[in-house]
Amino acid sequence: MRLLVTGGAGFIGSNFVHQAVGRAGHTVTVVDKLTYAANRESLADLPEDRVRFVEADICDRHLVDLLVAECDAVVHFAAESHNDNSIDDPEVFVTTNVVGTFCLLELVRRYHKRFHHISTDEVYGDLELDSPIRFTPQTPYKPSSPYSASKAASDMLVRAWTRTYGLKATISNCSNNYGPRQHVEKFIPRQITNILDGQRPRLYGTGLNTRDWIHVDDHNSAVLAILQRGRVGETYLVGADGELTNRQVIEMILVEMGRSPDEYDLVRDRPGHDLRYAIDASKTRNELGWVPAYPDFSVGLRATIDWYRQNESWWRPQKAATETKYRANGQ
Ligand code: NAD
Ligand code: DAU
Asked: For the chain, what is the mean pLDDT?
C-alpha cells in the first residue's frame, strides 16, 4: 500500500514508518509539521525510493489534499501528545488534535480513502487503584485533561464520519508507550536522562499513579494488523498487560542503572492527574491474532535504557529546555 503517515517524525509515527517499510513492504509519505516533538533523525536510514518526507501542517487542507489524493490509506499519528503541555497551553491541542483531524476526515471523505486513527486509552478517564476493571471498547468516554479531551473529540469525529458518510475508518486506543526515540519530556526518558546527567528522578505526587506500559514496537505491530485485518468501523484497544505504579518504574530504572532504588524526589503533582489506566486488549488479540513481542516490561526497559545511553546526540539538544520548563513548574 501507499500510506500517508501523519506525525511520522514523532516517537510512535517514526517507529511505524520503519515497521511499515521494513516489515510490511509499504511505501510511505510522511507529513509532519516538525514541532518541538519531532526529530528528523528518527527517520534516518530509510530507503529514499520508499519514503518521502513533506513538511506541512495537517490543518493545511490545500497542501494535504494532494497527498491524500495519491495514497491508498491515511494512518493518523499527528498530535500534540503531552498532558503537562496541554495544562499549560491547551489551544494548540484543540487546533491540531481536533481541527487537524477534522481536516483529514474531510479529505479522506472526498477521496474515499481508508483511514486509521491513532488514539489513546486516556479518553476513558481513570480507574481506582484496587478495582478489577480494565478499559474495553464499550467503556464510556470520560477524559480528564485538555489533551485527553481533545483526543476524545477527535475520536468522536471519526465515529461520526464513519456512521454518517460511510468512511472506511478504524480507531485504536493504546496505553502508555515506551521505547527508543521518545521525547525526553515523557516520564521514562526523562528519568533515564536525568540519571545519566547525575540528577535525581522526579516523581509526581505520591508516585502511586499507575500506567499500563507497552513497547512502541508492539503498538505499531497492532496498527499494522488493524490496517491489514481490522474491520472497518471498529475500535481496537492496544495494551500488553504492563500495569505498574510510577514508583515501581522509577525503582526498576534506578536499579538497572546501578543506583539505589530510593534515590528519587517527590515533586508537585500534575493537576487532575489520572490515577490508573488499564487495557483489556482481548478483542485485538482474539480477532486479529496480535501478540506483543515484549510481554516482559523489564526486557524492553533494559533495551530502552541502553538506547538512551548510546544515543545522547539524539536527545541532548532537547534536554536543557525541557528541564527548565519542568523546574519552572516545580516539577
Ligand atoms: P509525539 O509528540 O512524539 O509526535 C507527534 C508528531 O506529530 C510530531 O512529529 C509533530 O511534529 C507532529 N505534529 C504535531 N502537530 C502537527 C500538525 N499540526 N501537523 C502535522 N504534524 C504535526 O507523539 P507520540 O507520542 O508519537 O504520539 C503519536 C500519536 O499516538 C498521538 O496521536 C498520540 O495521541 C497517540 N498515542 C500516544 C501514546 C504515547 O504513549 N505516547 C499512547 C497512545 C496514543
Ligand atoms: O496512556 C496513553 C498516554 O500516555 C498517551 O496518550 C500520551 O500521549 C502519553 O504522553 C502518555 O500520557 P501520560 O500522561 O500517562 O505520560 P507521561 O509520560 O507524561 O507520564 C506518565 C506518568 O508519570 C504519569 O502518571 C505522570 C508521571 N510523571 C511524569 C513525568 C514527566 C512523573 O511522575 N514524573 C515526571 O517527571
From this structure: 98
